[in-house]
Amino acid sequence: MTVVTFVGAGSVEFTRDLLADLFGFTDLGPLTIRLHDIDPDRLATAHGIALQVRDRFGSQAEVTAHAERKASFDGADFVVNMIQVGGLASTRVDFDVPARHGVRQTIADTLGIGGIFRALRTFPALDGIAADMLAVCPDAWLLNYTNPMAMNLTYLSRTAPSLRAVGLCHSVYWTVHDLCELIGVPLEQTQWWSAGVNHQAWLLRWERDGRDLYPLLDDRIDADPELRRRVRVDMYRRLGYYPTETSEHSAEYVGWYLPHDDEVSRLRLEIGAYVGISEDNVATYERTRAQLAAGEPIDLDATATEYAPQVIHSMVTGLPRRIVGNVTNTGLVTNLPRDVCVEVPCLVDAHGVVPTWVGDLPPQCAALNRAYLNVVDLTVRAATEGDPLLLREAAMVDPNTSATLSPPAVWALVDDMVAAHGELLHLSLRSSLQPSRRTPSASTTSGGRP
User: Are 104 and 112 in contact (CB under 8 A)?
Assistant: First the structure.
């Protein structure tokens, strides 16, 4: 029997879609689905959804709901993590407080001041998940969807190195899917290869029968001025490789766009876009809960595109697949730092997830990825070392934040964010600081002035 636990199952739309893809496989054998969420109403709704999806697919899977996380992990083979610590209220904090300081954000779930604090309030929950898994299902795989992906996976690799974990994200798939639609080439006829970091990877190769498809994209862009009014098209034209997340995401990971009114207008950037997305997600939840209460069928659209069901199927049946996974850089990408999370092609079969060696990225792409990973590394160090100074230094080196604010203004922003998030942060990070000479510690390198 295969046991799959969903953590944060109250993310009802995502739970529904993952289960639809999972139940679409008919050769998994006996299957048990366990659902866990800290919100009783959302857990009950997720349970109702799961039962309805199961029945509509004719599956015989056992589906149970669990208020206690550790019990839901007992003997599990896979744990699918999709929690969002703090929910909509914390998302609004991540936008409202920086906005008062003049920092523009669009998504705030990966990098930037919003991504930093989303990570810091998620890390304590990851500690609990890792401890419970290592206690009651030490051989299970953690399939993580929770953002910020690179920070979360880097944190887990340093705090629970024996945990088997991979980060899954659909951004690369949908990037290639949409580009194929744009140039009129069927996705299934193409071959592609990408690498980098989550939400800032690069489409390094994109071909059809050995023919490079980038020239067709160039022609399409040249013919449509409106296409040139998007951030990642602008980045592609300047850097030579297409980034694998949306323009709203991509704008936050560099200092080139959001601080400038003319660029925000030229590239049609919607400031605060993710707040609206989050509010729509809440509305979807309320609508779904009402449908269940009325005994109505919920909306269902199985796409068979999400990676978690594919990973589970490959590990259970042995059918090999290639996916894109977020894993620790052990020399996989040779011109990015080691011991941080990178996004690379991975092979999956009965033996697990095996990352593929990439080698060097194009130097301009690696340069941007290193700036991104500087923020990841300092944020994780701030948490693991309990160092509030490292937290402020992470914000100071963040591209969008540093392009907008002076160092004193960055510190003032961090102080306000710490106060706003309060008890969601680890106690060691809740203090405010005044700039002073750093005291040498484990976080500093040796070899200073004689």
Answer: no
For the chain, 450 residues long, give each residue's pLDDT as a single digit of tens: 999 999 999 988 889 999 999 999 999 999 999 999 999 999 999 999 999 999 999 999 999 999 999 999 999 999 999 999 999 999 999 999 999 999 999 999 999 999 999 999 999 999 999 999 999 999 999 999 999 999 999 999 999 999 999 999 999 999 999 999 999 999 999 999 999 999 999 999 999 999 999 999 999 999 999 999 999 999 999 999 999 999 999 999 999 999 999 999 999 999 999 999 999 999 999 999 999 999 999 888 767 789 999 999 999 999 999 999 999 999 999 999 999 999 999 999 999 999 999 999 999 999 999 999 999 999 999 999 999 999 999 999 999 999 999 999 999 999 999 999 999 999 999 988 877 767 665 444 433 333
Say if CB 255 and CB 263 are below 8 A apart. no
Nearest to 326 by CA among 353, 304, 363: 353
* Phi and psi torsions of 443, nearest 5°: -85, -5
Question: Which residue's entry shows tokens 């990966």?
Answer: 110
- Tokens 């690379």 belong to 344
Alpha helices in 26-170 (DSSP H): 40-57, 69-73, 87-100, 112-136, 149-159
Q: Helix 112-136 and helix 407-421: axis angle, to 10°? A: 50
Residue 179, helix vs strand vs coil: helix
Other Cβ atoms closer than 10 A to 232: 21
Q: Distance between CA atoms of 381 and 126, rounded to whole angstroms? A: 15
Q: What share of the chain is helix, strand, coil (3-state, %, to 5)?
A: 50, 15, 35
Number of other CB atoms surrounding residue 174 within 10 Å? 14
Answer for the pair 217, 230: CB distance below 8 angstroms, yes or no. Answer: no
- Asked if residue 193 lies in contact with residue 202, where contact means CB atoms within 8 angstroms, the answer is no
For residues 426 and 386, what is the distance between their CA atoms, to the nearest angstrom? 8
How far is 32 from 78, CA to CA, in rounded Å?
Answer: 11
Per the CB < 8 A criterion, the answer to whether 10 and 42 are in contact is yes
Please tell me which residue in 170, 177, 260, 426 is annotated as part of the active site: 170
Indicate the SS3 state at residue 64.
strand
Distance CA 224, CA 257 (A): 21
Alpha helices in 305-387 (DSSP H): 307-317, 363-385
Indicate if 170 belongs to the active site. yes
Separation of alpha carbons 417 and 401, rounded Å: 13
